[in-house]
Amino acid sequence: MPLQFSFEQKVLFKHCDPAGIAFFPRYFEMINDCVEQFFDEALGWPFEELLQNEGVPTAEISTRFLAPSRHGDRLRLLLTVTRVGRSALGYRIDATCNGAHRFEAEATLVHVDKSGTPTAWPEAIRAKLKENGS
Amino acid sequence: MPLQFSFEQKVLFKHCDPAGIAFFPRYFEMINDCVEQFFDEALGWPFEELLQNEGVPTAEISTRFLAPSRHGDRLRLLLTVTRVGRSALGYRIDATCNGAHRFEAEATLVHVDKSGTPTAWPEAIRAKLKENGS
Amino acid sequence: MPLQFSFEQKVLFKHCDPAGIAFFPRYFEMINDCVEQFFDEALGWPFEELLQNEGVPTAEISTRFLAPSRHGDRLRLLLTVTRVGRSALGYRIDATCNGAHRFEAEATLVHVDKSGTPTAWPEAIRAKLKENGS
Amino acid sequence: MPLQFSFEQKVLFKHCDPAGIAFFPRYFEMINDCVEQFFDEALGWPFEELLQNEGVPTAEISTRFLAPSRHGDRLRLLLTVTRVGRSALGYRIDATCNGAHRFEAEATLVHVDKSGTPTAWPEAIRAKLKENGS
Hints:
Chain A contains three helices and seven strands, in the order βααββββββα.
């Protein structure tokens, strides 16, 4: 079973647009927050350390918005590791509210050095990414 | 030739992250601004009118980030209409800086009524979406 | 002793600018999140309910940024009620990290009805705002 | 007559909240964009150059929101230089729509070196800041 990580986010006033639903660029901030917390809590590698000499820019992300989310909704973003490459990490996000799907994303990020060159994951991180999440 | 629309956006301080490059959720704000200006200038249907009784939520968007953009870069987002459905609109975005690709996106948005139900495009809008952009 | 409310916020990647410190407009999102949580948890009046037929727009806010905050810093925003008017609420925010001041704000928000007209606080809310916070 | 600079900003979808009016933290992004463009166009010192080795963090800002702004409103932010210190710059912002006041701010920013230490303005910049704006 792949490594998974769960992130809770209430839909706040700041996330919502004049139609009263979450503005889709805000979902990408939530996804970024989820990935940041995943690195911190699941991998033990907080962004504030990682960013000193390395980076993990997003290379691609595909997102489907299945149903709108409203102010006050309590979202759960479930991150699942889908691929561990030499320097790449594939993951998907399933965002639900009370079990109903709201949006889903598939993304790839890349571990780079200070110059932006793709660089192999540290062995300890690779081991954690590949470990059985259950 | 499909309808196209060009949108200029300098990469500003607010767009950039601690790595000194544009933070990817900010690209989705730029894409939204581009689509909003396309509706205003190319279709003559500004969002502030459209939103009174209708909406155009994004149903899906797939984005590839090809090269980082830095503070001060002058981006050009070229929107190309790729599909005009009964209530859907497919488009792609090619974002370049001095001709070099930075990111590209394919997206679908849907015309909905006040209740969120997909609704056919008004005939005048459909005609503009289908007209030869050259 | 006036009513107080404490809100924790780690400085995340999304908050930081190319100088590696929190971008000041992001502090106002933090303040708004703090006020939203104060209404929810201290007053039992979540924004998603309040906003159905009323509003609490900010009338004025004065902020002093005393020291920069960096990615990873764990901020504590302490909200103190400073004035309860017929329809106005004055509060101050003291933001600290490990006890050291980072920024402080004084603000006034106003309870309005759907038309935007200032409206007296409901009696139960006024009572809570005026209760001894200790 | 002090140096002044005018900045135009349409209120866009992304700026607006569920109440259909501009979300106040977004005004601080507009103010920051205005100051960034002032440095670029009025002082000839774009932030993307300035930020290489220096910074201009905001030290304090006081804002009064006089009337709400709605999606589609065309705002004009008028920046007026109010004080030129050794390393500080005081300015005010008067934001109007068709001549009617929407918000006003008074702020101080400080010229700092890479370490964050306040540093005198370059003489050429000081001269421009003090020149008669008419």
